Amino acid sequence: MEKPRQISAMEAFEKLEKVGEGTYGKVYRARERATGKIVALKKTRLHEDDEGVPPTTLREVSILRMLSRDPHVVRLMDVKQGQNKEGKTVLYLVFEYMDTDLKKYIRSFRQTGENIPVNIVKVYLSLSLALFHTIT
Ligand SMILES: Nc1ncnc2c1ncn2[C@@H]1O[C@H](COP(=O)(O)OP(=O)(O)OP(=O)(O)O)[C@@H](O)[C@H]1O
């Protein structure tokens, strides 16, 4: 009997628009075709002459899986395989979609000249420290 094929990222999701770009790849707002749910798809960039998935990506995935258990951390919902135009395998990290990020949040305060409440700053600093200890 034939092994059931895992559906590819592009069969499962419809890309809506590019929302950002990080060190490791582009991020798209996308819609899950089966449910209509809006997600963030992070396409991982491949090193030109490398075969397979870069170790930095594998590291990011395993750390995110761990951190994603915390409700305060953006949730990594799934990891899907896809192919780029050259037929090479690319990975799509599927995240819950966030309307804002820390940079935009901080900028919103700068625009009005307000200060970020001290309690909020403390929460972010302790989260950053916790992250740092998890990664290093
Ligand atoms: N889950 C998400 N929901 C909505 N937008 C997102 C999401 N994840 C990332 N983005 C957008 O894409 C941009 C790039 O994100 P990404 O996580 O790839 O990189 P980064 O955190 O900016 O840098 P690095 O890749 O170095 O960690 C973010 O600044 C944000 O605007």
TrEMBL record:
Superkingdom of origin organism: Eukaryota
Domain Protein kinase span(s) in chain numbering: 13-136
Key words of the record: ATP-binding, Nucleotide-binding
Key word ATP-binding present: yes
One GO MF term: ATP binding
Residues binding ATP: K42
PROSITE patterns in alphabetical order: PROTEIN_KINASE_ATP, PROTEIN_KINASE_DOM
GO terms, biological process: G1/S transition of mitotic cell cycle; regulation of G2/M transition of mitotic cell cycle; regulation of gene expression; signal transduction
Keyword Nucleotide-binding: yes
Pfam families found in the cross-reference section: Pkinase
This protein's GO CC annotations: cyclin-dependent protein kinase holoenzyme complex; cytoplasm; nucleus
Transmembrane segments: none
The name this protein goes by in its record: Protein kinase domain-containing protein
